[in-house]
């Protein structure tokens, strides 16, 4: 068995970044930049009023001021502000030449239509200076940035109506298991509904990847080989669930090798989720995940998600915290790194959830985080600081 971080590095290092493509700004969310994005102009592009008020010379604040014009956003000023003059100005409008201060409309005493006085001589300047956010040529977003909603205005500000991003991988899911039936079917006493595939498709959607589902394949060598071969001819990555342990009908490792795939990782020292295969042939990749739903969920989060992100040019970093445990916690065996479901209470403490192992879907469904118990550790005490991975 390979330890978690060792296996993760080996898997991610196998990823060859996919080619780039151009997409519209409106479809760039959750894509990964394949280019550095620099701005082509100063931002703000002019001295901009940060308030509704009056633009004047600071040294004239104690005097009665003559209003020479009104400047709204989108209008070019017509006057240079001279001694004891001001312009009524709106937020976002160009500050006229000569003015170095904008006092708020709340601090204005209107004498008549043409005259005003400032009632707060200690006012701030209230001007956003040209280029104070970014100057022409500045790097706004580096390549490999995963584009979130907060990045969209930066792209728009840089004039990027189209964006160069890395292609998303084509991913197919196959559920392996003669005992499986689809969710709409009524299982026989010796059967079980396929719960892994819908879970994995949803996890792919979190990466903005639309996975392809090829259904259930029985544990029969020739049929399994045929389905794997078809899926990997049409896609970059195949995710299989089930058939990766050491039983007589766990055929996936041997089937992959017979098809010419190199087994890069086989079994990892995590709990739950020890049985797992990662294989490669050229630029085709295959994950064989556990048939147990909790195990496959955790394996995807630990290994498949970082790998798919690497294919798209993004170094995935999970949200991790170090928090205190709110109760004693123990386990019987300590040979593997345990990931157990938990919630965070109002005191920012980790509260373990009832968890019966790799098939206990309910134990995972209410979880906010997974907390770690390292190899060699059987017991944790209340108040111990532990690593927590956000879900």
TrEMBL record:
Keyword Magnesium attached: yes
Coiled coil: none
Protein EC: 2.10.1.1
Chain ranges of the MoaB/Mog domain: 172-310
Keyword presence, Magnesium: yes
Catalytic reaction annotation: adenylyl-molybdopterin + molybdate = Mo-molybdopterin + AMP + H(+)
GO MF terms held by the record: metal ion binding; molybdopterin molybdotransferase activity
Cofactor (UniProt): Mg(2+)
Associated pathway: Cofactor biosynthesis; molybdopterin biosynthesis
Top EC class, one word: transferase
Residue spans crossing the bilayer: none
Keyword line: Magnesium, Metal-binding, Molybdenum, Molybdenum cofactor biosynthesis, Transferase
Gene Ontology BP term (one): Mo-molybdopterin cofactor biosynthetic process
Pfam families: MoCF_biosynth, MoeA_C, MoeA_N
An annotated GO cellular component: cytosol
Similarity annotation: Belongs to the MoeA family.
The protein's role, per its UniProt record: Catalyzes the insertion of molybdate into adenylated molybdopterin with the concomitant release of AMP.
Protein name per UniProt: Molybdopterin molybdenumtransferase
Organism name: Carboxylicivirga sediminis
